[in-house]
Amino acid sequence: MSETTDIALAAKGDKAAFKRLYDRHIRNVYGQVLRLTADASLTDDLVQEIFVQVWRSLPKFDQRSKFSTWLYSLANNVAITELRKQTRWFKRNQRAAEQEDPHRCADLEDGIDLGALDQLVIKLPEQTRQVFVLHALNNYSHQQIADLLGIAEGTSKSQFHRARNLMQEWL
């Protein structure tokens, strides 16, 4: 079935149609959230929460935008909101990043293989990584990032520049 048909059916409560939507998008949503959080167990929890919210919000989806755009926007918002709540997250992430070799591929427990670029992205400091992922990978404008993260537009630009410099240095 087409994605449009599955969206309409799932919005009416069709679990099989929702499962097809889930299967189509789970890998990309997981990768997106993992890049933002740099924490596989937190990502597992957030992806579950994201799809619960999708199930609840699907009847309100107006189809003026692409489903994937709406879904990834929801995923970004859920991930960033959770990161704001995490008081010890940065320390955990920093320790994990220090133990990782940025030049090897890490095979996560669930079978998702991160390439060398993703390893570098995960190694970036929290806000720098968020700006990089949102701008470079999701095509958010610096103003959109500033609004989402509660920072100045200039801060978004400087964090993106910092991310590029760090990654070039590591390469």
UniProtKB/TrEMBL annotation:
Residues 115-165 form the RNA polymerase sigma factor 70 region 4 type domain. The keyword Transmembrane helix does not apply. GO terms for biological process: DNA-templated transcription initiation. GO terms for molecular function: DNA binding; sigma factor activity. It holds the Pfam family Sigma70_r2. Residues 21-88 form the RNA polymerase sigma-70 region domain. It comes from the Bacteria. InterPro entries: RNA_pol_sigma-70-like (IPR039425), RNA_pol_sigma-70_dom (IPR014284), RNA_pol_sigma70_r2 (IPR007627), RNA_pol_sigma70_r4_t2 (IPR013249), RNA_pol_sigma_r2 (IPR013325), RNA_pol_sigma_r3/r4-like (IPR013324), WH-like_DNA-bd_sf (IPR036388). Keywords: Sigma factor, Transcription, Transcription regulation. The keyword Transcription regulation applies. Belongs to the sigma-70 factor family. ECF subfamily. This is RNA polymerase subunit sigma-70. It comes from Idiomarina aquatica.
